[in-house]
Amino acid sequence: MKYHDLVIIGGGPAGLAAAVSAHEAGVSDILILERDERLGGILNQCIHNGFGLHTFKEELTGPEYAERYIKKVLDAKIPYKLKTIAADISPEREILYVNGEEGAVTVKAGAIILAMGCRERPRGALGLPGYRPAGIFTAGTAQRLMNIEGQSVGKKVFILGSGDIGLIMARRMTLEGAEVCAVAELMPYSGGLNRNIVQCLNDFNIPLKLSHTVTQIHGKERVTGITISEVDEKRSPIPGTEEYFDCDTLLLSCGLLPENELSKSAGITLDRVTGGPVVDDRLQCSVPGVFACGNVLHVHDLVDYVSEEAERAGAQAASYLSGNSTADGYVKLYTGFGVRYTVPQMIDVKNMSEQTVVRFRVADIYRDKSIALYYGDKHVKKQKKRIMAPGEMEQIIIKKDSFTDGIPDSIKVCVED
């Protein structure tokens, strides 16, 4: 059986940043497995700008951002395999991968970094009534068809879901000459960044209908129109609020799901809220020597945060390989009012770095509230925020020197007045 010190599954922004970081930390035997025909992952189809403001202090397109990290990987001569699918991972860190040149190959890894990204929630998971006509796409599929394959997906478009990809595709379709009727969102708030609402909808006078959903898809061969309805507090359609839109295309932007089928086969514990692995402050999963970063861990809003997190995962994997993997007991992070989840979910306080960034999303829109941090029953920190929304990730920093009174039984993050 072949052996590599570190195997990274995924050659997108997370996998590339993790590889570069691990290499800089002294790991020389690294292998990246990527299922696509090129490195860069989803960034290759994100031709709009807005990337890199945190990481490179300049505004880049997705391919430009990816190219920065691809160049680092090439300069470091880190091996990678394209058009290669990781089919299985065992708890013993044995990876089965498949490609057209080698067939099925099993390799043993000293450490693994999971960087498989996420996938879109398809129509089948949404329960939309109607036939199965042509003209229904997930927003990401439409983006790839247009930006990479050079195909038009429709001329009169309705978008269900206000995730960032859906908002960006509303602008993209408009710029390509299509008419975007409206964007409907089931929740009473948008799931995307506020800047995307402004730049992709408001700037093009595209209506955003909150607390609405599609209740009927019309057409058998091709979409001919859709009916939407307003929903109540229980997300159920309200009779009498139906509104019909004539369109030939329906784009779905109804959430992203971390791609964790491989994590399940490895016996890794998953978080029921994020859908990604439960990790400690080293970004290590429940299976020792397996680390996770990027959208496979939890869905990010900015690729800059993906790269930052992945660099930490790469450094921690290098530390694990060098034998520095002592854990003296974890303190669990709990979510209080207004916080849906935290990443990491636990911290090894005795052996933590000087500081740990805890990222999370809030459960609703909150104005003039604070993020509060508690060690047990002791109030430690409060950060005032003018506005917090589910579509934008929040964070709080926990410093090692803040545990002056000893190690608490628990750590809690919540929203307060």
3D structure, described in words:
The protein has helices spanning 13-24, 62-75, 139-147, 164-175, 194-201, 261-265, 303-321; strands spanning 2-9, 30-33, 49-51, 60-61, 80-81, 85-89, 94-99, 103-114, 118-120, 136-138, 156-160, 179-185, 208-210, 212-218, 225-230, 243-246, 249-252, 256-258, 290-292, 331-335, 339-343, 346-347, 355-362, 366-375, 378-388, 394-399, 410-416. The protein has 417 residues and is α/β, with parallel strands linked by helices. The chain folds into three domains: 1-120 and 255-325, FAD/NAD(P)-binding domain, CATH 3.50.50; 122-254, FAD/NAD(P)-binding domain (3-Layer(bba) Sandwich), CATH 3.50.50; 327-417, Immunoglobulin-like. Helix 1 packs parallel to helix 2, helix 1 packs parallel to helix 7 (303-321) and helix 3 (139-147) crosses helix 4 (164-175). The chain is globular and about 60 Å long. The chain starts with a strand and ends with a strand. The mean pLDDT is 94.
Q: Give the overall shape.
A: globular
In whole angstroms, the N-to-C terminal distance is 58 Å
Low-confidence stretches: none
CATH architecture of the largest domain: 3-Layer(bba) Sandwich
Share of β-strand residues: 25-35%
What is the CATH topology descriptor of the largest domain? Answer: FAD/NAD(P)-binding domain
Mean pLDDT: 94
